[in-house]
Write a sequence for this structure.
């Protein structure tokens, strides 16, 4: 197993604050690992806390979007950005949440090849456009989401999840962040 987290040599705060260690223990219990994206931030606990707070709110908080839909957005954004870390990690999450390994693979390769309903397709086309050409988002793009049942709050959540993964993808690319080996074998 590889223990490389990223290309930057940023030593972790030692010892980790009690709250951070507790969070990592929960990750270990629930996931069987501490995701490298979290370990990458251990040199700056304030940034780690900001990252985890935003992640937990966007991905686990109240939303009209399902957890699977949020993970699908993460995969589409990461596919556009060619973010290896997030494609591996969030592709695994799509496989797990959907119970469909083929869906996870299709999402990583080309979401258009995946068996999506009209709602998912509209959501992912919006996330793709927001990633590729954010200045070209216009009212018809938002209306297309409303037409398949998304509320304005849902549209805000779609944009927020897409924005978060665009940021995460850029940090992962800049630091050559590596996914945990365990992600490669999940839900296959």
């Amino acid at each position: 197993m590889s223990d490389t987290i990223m290309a930057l040599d940023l030593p972790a705060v030692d010892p980790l604050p009690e709250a951070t260690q507790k969070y990592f223990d929960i990750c270990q219990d629930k996931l069987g690992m501490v995701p490298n994206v979290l370990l990458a931030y251990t040199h700056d606990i304030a940034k780690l806390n900001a990252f985890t707070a935003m992640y937990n709110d966007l991905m686990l908080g109240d939303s009209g979007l399902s957890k699977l839909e949020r993970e699908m957005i993460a995969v589409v954004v990461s596919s556009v950005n060619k973010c290896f870390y997030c494609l591996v990690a969030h592709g695994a999450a799509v496989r797990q949440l959907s119970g469909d390994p083929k869906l996870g693979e299709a999402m990583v390769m080309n979401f258009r090849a995946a068996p999506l309903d009209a709602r998912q397709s509209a959501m992912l086309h919006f996330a793709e456009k927001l990633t590729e050409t954010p200045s070209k988002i216009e009212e018809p793009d938002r209306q297309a989401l409303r037409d398949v049942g998304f509320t304005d709050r849902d549209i805000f959540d779609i944009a927020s999840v897409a924005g978060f993964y665009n940021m995460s993808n850029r940090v992962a690319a800049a630091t050559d962040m590596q996914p945990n080996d365990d992600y490669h074998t999940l839900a296959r």
